[in-house]
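Q: Could you predict the 3D structure of Transport permease protein?
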Amino acid sequence: MEGIYAIWQRDLLKFFRDKARLFGSFTMPILFLLIFGGGLSGTMESMMGSMAGAGEGFNYVEFVFPGIVAMTLLMTSIFSSLSIIEDKDFGYMKEILVSPISRVSIAVGKMLGAATVATIQGIILFLLIPLLGLSYSIVSLLQVLPFMFLFAAALSGLGLLIASLIRSTQGFQMIVQVLVMPMIFLSGALFPINNMPAWMDIIVKLNPVTYGVDVMKKIMIDVDSLSPQVQNAMGLNLDVFGRPVTMIEEILFIAGFAALLVLLATFSFRRANA
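A: Sure. Here are the predicted structure tokens for Transport permease protein:
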């Protein structure tokens, strides 16, 4: 536990000391929020409102904001794993490997550090809620925090696995960029994922971000107050093989995904650094 805590603390201190990283990580989420939440909100509200029969009362920004937060968690969690490759280059990783700390502790410490950093950045985005005129309840924001950390931990496990297999920062960034954008656009973060082609729907259902985004929307948005037509228009009725997926099942899937990736990353990390 001391080894896990030391690695977690080091990654957290590096994050707060790197002001450029703290500022730069918000650039893309805020850009998407301005484009989709501002520039395209009228068009999307009209289209989705017509689909739901909700008229002008349909708030697209309220729909897209949880997706923007999920996007922040995704990008921060995965890119935080880049520090593993940097630690290899500077020799810090060799110092850890010769210490009594187990490979599992190293992987868990890195995962928790990235998840904590990502969760903090997601919480900072909550400061935009009053500026956007949104009406999420304090209770729903508090309820979503534990899942945000779990979701970030699962995504950081993915980044950890990639970083354990790649030996250069350029290769890591290239692979991550190829993965991140499809995971964002095929997750329901920015627009509903209903009525997609069959081959694309398969990718959507295999995408772990899909379930994370769906859980965050169900927690943050008062789903019970929405009509079934509005829920369908917003893509909140997610199903797999024609069977509706409950929020508990989605949370369990994310937890299992996180545990699996930590095990795979630990095994890969042990082989790559033996």
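Q: Anything worth pointing out?
A: The chain has a mean pLDDT of 79.
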